[in-house]
Design a protein that fits this description.
Blueprint (H helix, E strand, L loop, with lengths): L6 E4 L3 H12 L3 E5 L3 H10 L7 H6 L5 E4 L6 H10 L3 E5 L6 H13 L4 E4 L6 H11 L6 E11 L8 H17 L5 E7 L9 E7 L5 E7 L1 E13 L2 E6 L8 E4 L2 E2 L5 E2 L4 E2 L7 H15 L7 H18 L1
């Protein structure tokens, strides 16, 4: 019989509340901490939990792991403190705000034999999992191009650019498919509201086998689009997370021939089982705490994503 895990949540904003709900349903939520004391006390009371001070969380030997869902600028210090106190760790994306910081945290987790997982959520979405399976099985033929559009009129963050807020998701998915870092990065950016970095970016990533990836990330766009597609010699798979489940993943068997003519065929809906990606992600985290196996989005994967974000950042600066 598996022992009951006790996990502390640091940060209970809009997304943190979703994490709290899932951990509570999994009977693993030990406490919730937020700098907004009134908010954390309200949620602790709602879940009938004890309210902890931050240092108490780090020092309590009965707390097995910590989930960090606080603002990105706080991730580095909280992650280092957690690992130094021998806590396993889940960090919401972005992992942190610089490549050196990510490397320090990753090395500390490895040296301390701690589980470290980063919240690259869409790796746990059944539509993306199915997409990778179909690519592997040759559904689209030879992979040629990846397109990722993550656009909305949303919250503009003061401490991080659109690269870290939005592009992290798509970079993680792209690297999961290509299984290599890009050899070249080209960037165009728009700066309107944020002194830290761009508000919108268009990025081209080039890979060694001729595959290219195009990323559009924009939090000023007047319409919402969360679309991720892969194109090959036999057609394309389109993952549109704004659609209902029966239409989230489509296969377009149309393709361009070697003579530059277009062969068209009817679009096919790919059947996938519904899931809540956050729940699936946290279930993997718990399973890794028990098994001591590294999660899919571990510190190695996280540093690779951070490396690409750093490559993009340097092109802008």
């Amino acid at each position: 019989m598996k022992r009951k895990l006790k996990i502390a949540l640091i940060g209970c904003g809009n997304w943190g509340k979703n994490i709290a709900r899932n951990l509570h349903e999994m009977k693993s939520l030990a406490c919730i901490y937020d700098t907004n004391k009134e908010l954390s006390e309200t949620l602790n009371n709602e879940y009938m939990l004890t309210t902890y001070e931050l240092n108490d969380i780090f020092e309590d030997k009965n707390i097995n792991a910590i989930v960090i869902a606080s603002p990105a600028i706080t991730h580095k210090d909280l992650a280092i403190q957690s690992l130094k106190c021998n806590k396993d760790l889940f960090v919401e994306k972005p992992f942190c705000l610089s490549l050196p910081d990510s490397q320090i945290i990753a090395e500390l987790a490895t040296n301390n034999n701690r589980i470290l997982m980063v919240g690259h959520l869409l790796n746990y979405h059944n539509a993306f999992i199915k997409m990778k399976e179909l690519i592997k099985n040759g559904k689209i033929g030879i992979l040629q191009n990846i397109r990722a559009n993550r656009l909305a009129l949303g919250a503009i963050r003061s401490e991080e650019s659109v690269i870290y807020d939005l592009s992290a998701h798509d970079i993680s998915m792209i690297l999961s498919i290509t299984k290599e870092l890009p050899i070249e990065v080209n960037v165009q950016s728009i700066h309107h509201n944020n002194n830290i970095g761009p508000d919108a970016i268009c990025v081209k990533l080039s890979f060694s086998k001729g595959v290219t990836a195009l990323i559009n990330s924009d939090w000023m766009c007047p319409y919402k689009e969360h679309k991720f597609s892969v194109t090959g010699t036999k057609g394309s798979l389109i993952f549109d997370d704004t659609k209902n489940w029966p239409e989230k993943l489509l296969f377009n068997p149309s393709f361009i021939t070697s003579k530059n003519s277009v062969v068209t065929s009817p679009i096919e809906k790919i059947k996938i089982q519904e899931n809540e990606p956050l729940k699936s992600e946290l279930e993997e985290f718990l399973e890794c705490l028990y098994s001591r196996k590294n999660p899919l989005t571990d510190q190695i994967e996280a540093v690779k994503v951070q490396t690409v974000m750093d490559m993009i950042d340097k092109k802008i600066k």
